[in-house]
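Components:
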Amino acid sequence: MDNKKIKRSDDYSLWYNNLVKNADLAEHSAVKGCMVIKPYGYAIWEKMQQELDRMFKATGHVNAYFPLFVPKSLFEAEEKNAEGFAKECAIVTHYRLKTDPDNKGKLIVDPEAKLEEELIVRPTSEAIIWNTYKNWIQSYRDLPILINQWANVVRWEMRTRLFLRTAEFLWQEGHTAHATKEEAMEETRKMLDVYAEFAETFLAIPVIKGRKTENERFAGADDTFCIEGLMQDGKALQMGTSHFLGQNFAKAFDVQFAGKDGKRDFVWATSWGVSTRLMGALIMAHSDDDGLVLPPTIAPVQVVIVPIYRSDEEFTKVNNVALDIKKRLEKQNLSVKYDNRDTHKPGWKFNEYELKGVPIRIAIGPRDVDNQCVEIARRDTKEKQSLSNVDLEHKIPHLLEQMQKNIYDKALSFRDQNIHSVNTYSEFKEKLEHPGGFISAHWDGTGETENRIKEETKATIRCIPLNASIEKGTCIYSGKPSAQRVLFAKAY
Amino acid sequence: MDNKKIKRSDDYSLWYNNLVKNADLAEHSAVKGCMVIKPYGYAIWEKMQQELDRMFKATGHVNAYFPLFVPKSLFEAEEKNAEGFAKECAIVTHYRLKTDPDNKGKLIVDPEAKLEEELIVRPTSEAIIWNTYKNWIQSYRDLPILINQWANVVRWEMRTRLFLRTAEFLWQEGHTAHATKEEAMEETRKMLDVYAEFAETFLAIPVIKGRKTENERFAGADDTFCIEGLMQDGKALQMGTSHFLGQNFAKAFDVQFAGKDGKRDFVWATSWGVSTRLMGALIMAHSDDDGLVLPPTIAPVQVVIVPIYRSDEEFTKVNNVALDIKKRLEKQNLSVKYDNRDTHKPGWKFNEYELKGVPIRIAIGPRDVDNQCVEIARRDTKEKQSLSNVDLEHKIPHLLEQMQKNIYDKALSFRDQNIHSVNTYSEFKEKLEHPGGFISAHWDGTGETENRIKEETKATIRCIPLNASIEKGTCIYSGKPSAQRVLFAKAY
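Structure:
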C-alpha cells in the first residue's frame, strides 16, 4: 500500500494505524511494544483524566501512589491473580550496570548486583496495595478505604497495537476496602456506572454494561463487570472493568478487621480501571475517512479560526475580527485556536484540522467581515453554513452541544443496528461474519461451550448484559437450557 | 526513644520521619527504598502538580509520555549520562515467570524468557526522548520542541529517606529542543525562573538561584542551574534543576536539522525537573513541633470548621451556622472541611488539624452563635481571635493571604540570617558546624579544592549564585585567586 489515504472500507486496521500516526496521537518507540504518546494524543488523555478524576472525587475517592515494583513473594500471594499475570511480567533482577571490560564505552549488567528477590514491574497493583492496607486496617472504623491511583503498568504483550494493546500503558486503578460484602458489591456497581456515564456523556460512546463469564473474569476476582463498546468495523471493545474481589486478597494478605461487635472478619475488596485503551475506543468509534471526529467535550481544541486573505490589508481587516471572536469564545470557556500562520495555506489548514478532529472550524475572509458573518464548518457532518457574527459566542456553545448529541446518537444508532438476535449456531456464524456486531444468543452457561465457540468462530462472550429482559431458551451450540441471552462478538 | 512527641531540637531527622508518618503523608513500602504516598501527602503533591502544570503550559509547553524502559544500547549512547546513572539502575532482564516445579504455588523467573537486550527502568529520560526526537526533527521548522512529562523514575539508592531520597520517585521532566545555543540557554534560565517563582510564591520557600560547579553538574549537561532552599536545621536542599545540555544528546543520537540557510547542525537541548522531593522541602521549611505548617496556597484543606457542643440541641444550633459558613467560604473558592464527627472530641480534632497543617481552624460553640462570632485559630502563629461572623467569607481569604506572606517572610528571615560570609577556612568550619546554613566563601574554582573541602567538612558547593555582587578575593582553602564568592552548605 502506498501512503495515499486509506479508507475504513479498504482496510480498517491500516486506517486506524495511519490515523493514529497522521493525527499525531502516538507512535511506536524503540522499546518493543511500548508507545510514545505524542502531545496531541496526550492532551486528549489529559481531558479524560481530568473528567474521570473529578468523577472519582465526587464519589468520595482520593488519590494515592504505590510502588512500581512488586516483590515476587507478594506477587505470588494471591495465586489466581499471580497465575493470571505470570506469563506477561517484566522482571527486574539487577540494580547496577558496570563498564564492559571488553568494550570501551559500553555497559554490562553487573552480575554482583543481583537482587536477592526479583521485583515484578506491576501489571496491576492489588498485591502491593493489599500488603499495604494490611497495616492500615484494624477495625471497622478504618473502613471503607476508597483509593484511586493514576499510574503506568506493564504487561508483556507479544502482539501490540497503539493504544489498544501495549506492553506499557497508562491507567487508573481504584482499590477499595469494605466491611461488608454488600458494600463492596455496591461499590463495584457504582464505579461501573461511573465508567458508563463517562463513556456515554463524555466520549459519546454508548456502552453495554454487563457481567463477565467466569472464563473472562479478572484473575483473582469473584465477579467482573464491564462496559463494552462497538467499533465501526463491528468488533467490540472492552472499555472498562470493575471487579468484586470478594475476600480473596484479604485472605492472601491476612487483612482482618474487628467489627462493631468485636468479631474479626476478612475485609471485602473491589478494584476497577480504565486505561489509555479508551483512546483507541474514542478514535475507532467516531472517526471517518478524513480523520478524527472528536466529541466537543474531549477535544483539546474545540474551535479553530482560520483567516482567509490575499494582502496585508485584508489580513489586518480579518485579523481584528478573528481576535475579537477568539476572545468572546474564550469567555464562554471554549478552547479556541487561532491559526494565523502565514506558512500554510487555508486549504492545508482545513485538512489538518479535519484530520485532528477539531469540532468547529471558523473561516473568515474580507467579504465575511463586510457582511458581519463567518463561515462555520462542523467536523461531524461536514456541513458548512454562514453565521452572523452577532451573538456568535452563544451560538457556538449551542452548536457544540448539538454536535456532542449528534455524535453520540450516530454511534448509538450504529450500535443498536448491530445487535443481532440469533437462535441457531449457523445463523450465529453467518451474522458474526457479516455484518458482525454483537450477537445476542442463548448459551448454556458452561466454559466448555464458550471455549468451543471461541475456537470455532473467534467470538467471545463480551458480557451477560445487565438490565436485559430475561428470556429463557436453549443454547445455540449445545441445545441445553439457557436462562438468558448473552452478547457475543469478535473483540479487540 | 519512645513514641512521645519529638521536637526539632531533640532530633531533627527523627522529628521529620515522625511527622511524615504521623501526618499521613507517606510511609515505607515492602519494596526496599520505595515509598507509599498516602492520600493526604498525595493531595499536596497534586496541588503542586496543578500549579506547575499551569505554569509550564503558560510558558508554551505541552505534555507527552515516553516509555518507562530504555534499551541498554540507547542508555549508553550519551556516555557521560550513562556513566552518571549506571550504578543506580534497575534492570529488567526477563519477561515471564513460570510455576516453580519444586514448590507448589510459587513462581520462578522463566530462564527461557530472557530478553535479548536488557531494559533499564528510566532514571531520567534524555536517552529515550532524544532517540524519539531524532525522527521528529528535520528542519528548523520542527523547532523548538517544548515537551514536559509527568512520570515515575527509578534510581537505586542505598540510603533512602521518605520524599527526600527514594528509589522510585514521581517527577516532571521537561525536554526541549532548539535551533540555537542562545535559545536553549534562554529556555534553561526561563525554567529556572519558573521553578523559583513556584517555590517562593506557592511553597513560600525563598530560594537561591545559582549555577552548579562542574563536579555537581547533571551527567551529560554542559551547565546545570538550580534553586536551593534552606531547611530549619541549617542544611540546604536542592529543590529543582534546569540543565543546558548543549549538543551532547543531539550528537549521541545524531539529531541534526537543516537551518533556514539550508546548513545542517546538531540540535541544542535543555532538560529540567522537580520531584516529590519538594514535599520534603515543604515539610522541613515550615513545620514546627506540633506538626505541619502548610502555606494556604498548597493546603488541600484551607479551613476546617469544628463544632463545639454538649447536647443535641446545642449541636443543631451550631450545625446550622457551621454549614452556612462552609457554604459562604466555598463560594470564595476556599477548600473547607466541616468535621462534625461525633466519634472524636474537639480537643482531638484540634491536635489532628494542627498536625496536618490546616491553615485556619474555626471553632463554633453555642455562645459564639449567640454572639454572632466564631473562634479563629491560625496555624502559623497559633494565635486565636474571636471574629464576627458578619462578612467572615471576606475576612478569611484576606487572613489566608496574610498567612501565606507571613510563612514566606519567616522562612526568608531565617534563610537570610543563615547566610554567613567567611574569609578563612577555620571560620568556615566553625560556622558550618554552628549555626550551619549557607557559608558564602571564596573558592579557587577547582574541583580539587571542592573535593578536599567536601571530604574534610561534608560541605558541598550548593551553587555559584546568580545575581550576586561580584567580589574578587582569595580561596579560603588554597589561597589562590577567586572571582566570586560561592555558597557552601551541608545538604540533603
